[in-house]
Amino acid sequence: STVAEMTQHAPVVAVGTVLGVAGSGQVNVVLPSGAPNPDTPYTEFTVSVKAALKGNPGTTIIVRQTGGRDSAGRTIELAGDPMLKTGETMLMFLREFSPGHFVIMGGPTGRYDISAQGRVIALPQSQIQSPPSTMAAFTSEVVSAAH
Hints:
Blueprint: H1 3-9, E1 12-30, E2 36-54, E3 60-69, E4 75-77, E5 89-98, E6 101-104, E7 111-114, E8 120-122, H2 135-146
Parallel strand pairs: 3-6
Antiparallel strand pairs: 1-2, 1-5, 2-3, 3-4, 5-6, 5-7, 7-8
């Protein structure tokens, strides 16, 4: 995948800061083997939107991420897709699944940490090919692909 391809597939591309946990629950998923897994936990985070590079998500959104505590109290986290943390600022490729509620598209490929110096850092499991390393360059690529 490229930044341009991700931008074309994502209805919303936004920069936001995680304010905290908004809620959690369990959802039914089908495992790659085809077996149902009815106890897959998710965690919802409140995110303050700093900039919308594509779409109009609003100023505060809820981002749902697979992972959290299951009904037995075990912490579940997808490999390569660490749980969001309060205070971190990210660039995210998002899809809205209900009003004001979004999921990150592509797991670790759909989110980037933004350092205090404005550097864009891909997660180790990201499948994106040569992402720009500065916020200005990333923004420019997203904006040109969105039009």
